[in-house]
Amino acid sequence: LYGGRYDMGTITLSTGDLFVAGGRASNNGITEAFYYRNSTYRREGVPPMHIARYRPRLIELADGKILVIGGCTNGTNSGTSSVEVYAPATGRWAQLASMSVGRCRHTATL
């Protein structure tokens, strides 16, 4: 992967590509997200998320959008209640209604 980081959220998409969001660099959450294209073995950047986070959970929705849920914030292991969705068709992130409680080191299932 590009740059030193760990604790990213990752998901293998129905296309076979890997989508990576957030992570930790120097103990701080980051906003970066990108694809790792299975067909070319190359990284393809997307615009950054609105909220820096590490250990988020990712879900691919039926319409191909990617949901990023919660995660930890800046070295405190405090959970964020932020939820964002990435729309590959437009290349844009949208913030959704926040969860009632922040989540860190959680699970998510669709």
What does this molecule look like?
The protein is 0% helix and 39% strand. The relative contact order is 0.20. The N and C termini lie far apart (27 Å). It has no helices and twelve strands. The protein is an all-beta fold and 110 residues long.
Secondary-structure element order, N to C: EEEEEEEEEEEE
Mean pLDDT across the residues is 87
Mass-distribution shape: globular
The residue ranges in which pLDDT falls below 50 over 5 or more consecutive positions are: none
Total strands: 12
Helical residues, percent: under 10%
What is the count of helical runs? 0
Give the end-to-end Cα distance, rounded to a whole number of Å. 27 Å
What is the C-alpha radius of gyration, as a whole number of Å?
A: 13 Å
Please state the structural category. Answer: mainly beta
Biggest sheet strand order reads 1-2-5-6
The largest sheet, given as strand count, sense and whether it forms a barrel, is: 4 strands, antiparallel
SS strand fraction: 35-45%
How do you describe this structure in short?
Helices cover 0% and strands 39% of the residues. With 110 residues, the protein is mostly beta strands.
List the helices and strands and how they pair.
Elements: E1 9-12, E2 18-21, E3 24-25, E4 28-29, E5 33-37, E6 42-46, E7 57-60, E8 66-69, E9 72-73, E10 78-79, E11 83-87, E12 92-95
Antiparallel strand pairs: 1-2, 2-5, 3-4, 5-6, 7-8, 8-11, 9-10, 11-12
